[in-house]
Task: structure prediction
Amino acid sequence: MALSHHYAVRVDWTGNLGTGTDTYRSYSRDHDIASDGVPTLLGSADKTFRGDRSRWNPEQFLLAALAQCHMLSYLSHCARSGVVVLSYADAAEATMETSGGGGRFVSAMLRPRVEIADESMRAQAEALHGPAGQDCFIASSVNFPVHHEPVVTVRSVS
Result:
C-alpha cells in the first residue's frame, strides 16, 4: 500500500518596488519561502535573470534537494547495512540549458566525499550509492540524469 505525504510551503513575493510588474526591469525577483516550524529562506532569481546573488534561487534549491535527498538515503542504507559513516560532504553541480523564454536541467552530478570507520566497509560503502540514488525521492521525480562520483576514504588512526 502506497503512503501519501503532504508538504506545504508559502512563497511571498517581496519585490514590488512601487510599480509592480509594469516592465520587466521594474520589479525585484526577491521573495520569502516559509513553512511552519522552520526558518524563512530568502529567495530570488538567478543573477542571469535579474536576481539577487545574495539570495537562494530555484535552481540552487533543486540541486540542494537532490544532494540532500541522496545523502539522507545513503546514510539510511549505510546504517541498515553496518557501514559506519563518520563524515559526508557533497560538492554537487548541475547543468541547465535555456532556449527562448524557457529552459530545463539536463544533468546533475553529485560528488559525495564519504569517510568511513574501517577499510572492511569500503566496498559496501561505495556500492550503496547505487541503491541510495534509486531510493532518493527527489532524483526519482526529475526527468534528467543524476550521476554520482563518490569518493570513499577511511578515517586514519592517529
About this structure: The chain is about 25% helix and 30% strand. The two ends are 50 Å apart (CA to CA). The first helix runs from residue 58 to 81.
